[in-house]
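Progress against Task 2.4 (sequence-to-structure conversion) is shown through the following example record, which the project officer requested during the mid-term review.
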Amino acid sequence: MRMLDINSSVVVGVSGDFYDDMLWPEFTETKIIQQSAHSEIDFEALLDSRPHVYIVFATNGMVDTNAIASGKGGVGKTSLAVNCAVKLSLGNKRVALLDADFGLANAHIMLDQKVSASISDLLDGTCEINQVIHETPTGLKLIPGGSGVLELMNIDSKKRWEVIKSLDYLETDIDFLFVDTPAGASDSSVEFAAACDKIIIVLVG
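C-alpha cells generated for the chain above:
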C-alpha cells in the first residue's frame, strides 16, 4: 500500500531492494543509492546529486536480524544461535545463520555439516556469497565462518563490512538472520552486533 504523496521532481536517490515499478512507477529511472534499508548509503552519489528528498522503500516483510553475543567464551552462545535457527526453520520459517566467529567457527560442527566453502573463500575472492551458503536438511541456510584460518581472526573493518553487505543477497529469501558473533567486546563483535536489529546477550548464572 502506498502511504506517501511524493513530488517526484525533487527525488534523486532511492533505496533499491524494494524498487516497485507498480507501486512507485515514477521512480523506475531514479538512481539507486542504497541497495537495502540495512546496507550502506552511497554518500558520494548523494553529494553529487545534492538531493532535496531521500526515500527508503520499506515493507513489513524485512528480515528480522538477531545477533547472539557474550562477554566471554564457553557460555553456550553458538549453541543458542544454532538451536534458535534450527527451531525456526523447522517451523517453516526461512532462516539463515552467519557464523561470524571467524577463524574459530564451529556452528557447522554443531549442525553436523561438512562444508566445502566459508567466509574465508568469499573474502579472498575464490567464491561468491551464493557458493558459500550451505543449506542444511532442515532448510536452514548456514554461512560458515571458517575454522583454523589465522588470517580470518584479524580481518579489518572494511572486510567485515564486505561480509555484512554480501548478506543483502539473501534479503528476499529469508525471514530471520541469526549472527553468532565472536565472544568478548572486540571490534568484530561490536560491528556485527551493531548491524543487527536485536542483540541477545548470553550470560553465565
